[in-house]
Amino acid sequence: MTGRTPNGLTVLDLCCGAGGLSWGYWLAGYDVVGVDVNPMPNYPFEFHQADALEYLDRIITTGEVERYALVHASWPCQAFANVTQWRGDQADHEDLLTPGRKLMDKSGRPRVIENVPEAPLRPDYLLCGSQFGLNVRRHRSFETSWGGGGELLPPCWHHKGLLPFMHKGERAYADAMGCTWMNKTEARQAVPPAYSEWIGRQFLALHADQAA
User: How far is CA 58 from each of CA 53, 65, 70, rounded to the nearest angstrom?
Assistant: First the structure.
């Protein structure tokens, strides 16, 4: 990949899946370490298969968490997502976001939590693919330890032809998100790398302002 300028900072990506948001942070210049409870053979960076809550708790205890400039987590969304109501029962899914947020705050590191718009997050950033010129409609909410702000984005625009998620067009949807290395099943849970590339650059700007 051309055009990358390393910034010397590392992101810990908890519940990383196949690495959509990890890839965005990498594009923004970060090194990335991913953690997921499931094996992720297509994950493109350093990877640890582990329970994310247990892993974070352990590295807080050992002090290893200090290695990371930023801790990101995409706690499972099924307990909050509207689509779960269409296909099952939200009550069947454990809320990991609440204990996850508490543990991330305990770490003392700057943090980002990503989830569906229905999740109980403070929407410091609410992003859609159309804001980045992507031909996909995929809304995601981001709560950050710095509370938002920074560069302005164009408004969300659901123009004719914008791809919604549909199982019959999964390969095209994955590619339109920028997740070309994933298989279709992995991409069902993925978020476009453009989102975290932008979030990562907002944090870099904040980091630079604080260092000045």
Answer: 9, 9, 17
Tell me, what's the pLDDT at 109? 98
Beta bridge partners of 31: 10
- Is 1 among the domain residues? no
Asked if 139 contacts 126 with a C-beta cutoff of 8 angstroms, the reply is yes
- Which string of DSSP letters, residue by residue, matches 134-195? -SB---EEEEETT-S-SS--PPP---TTPBPP-GGGHHHHHHHHT-TTS-HHHHTT---HHH
Q: What is the pLDDT of residue 167?
A: 61
Query: How many domains does the chain fold into?
Result: 1
CATH number at residue 137: 3.40.50.720
What is the Cα–Cα distance from 130 to 107, expressed in whole angstroms? 34
Q: Rounded to whole angstroms, how far apart are CA atoms 62 and 110?
A: 18
Q: What is the pLDDT of residues 47-77, one digit of tens each?
A: 999 999 999 999 999 999 999 999 999 998 7
Q: Which residues constitute the domain of residue 122?
A: 10-211
Q: What is the pLDDT at residue 166?
A: 66
Residue 3 falls within a domain, yes or no? no
Instruction: For residue 179, report the phi and psi dihedrals to the nearest 5 degrees.
Output: -105, 55
Report how far residue 168's alpha carbon sits from residue 145's, in angstroms, rounded to the nearest whole number. 38
Exposure of 42 in the CB half-sphere (CA atoms within 13 A): 15
What does pTM read for this prediction? 0.90
Q: How far is 201 from 207, CA to CA, in rounded Å?
A: 10
